[in-house]
Amino acid sequence: MDECKAFKKEYDKCFNIWFRDKFLKGSNDDSVCSELLKSYTGCVKEAMKEKDIVIDDFRRYHPNISPDYEPPKNK
To answer: Would you list the DSSP string of 5-46?
Structure first.
């Protein structure tokens, strides 16, 4: 979704730095990128809503995703 590319780019940058500098060195505190992730996922959810994309439709066409899967809840 083009309207979310900037959010994704910023989150990916943060995640990659966190992964390299923190996670691989033993820290699993991923809160440093949490606000960027919230912005990105919020944008995706809004874009899906505007385009009438329903997650149940997605699951119907992608049966390899467990019907019990629930996305992580925001903290």
So the answer is: HHHHHHHHHHHHHHHHHTGGGT----GGGHHHHHHHHHHHHH
In contact, 8 and 42? CB cutoff 8 Å? no
| Neighbouring C-alpha atoms within 13 Å toward the C-beta of 19 | 6
Specify the pTM: 0.69
- Dump pLDDT digits (tens) for 5-46: 999 999 999 999 999 999 999 999 989 999 999 999 999 999
Q: Position 29: which residue type?
A: D
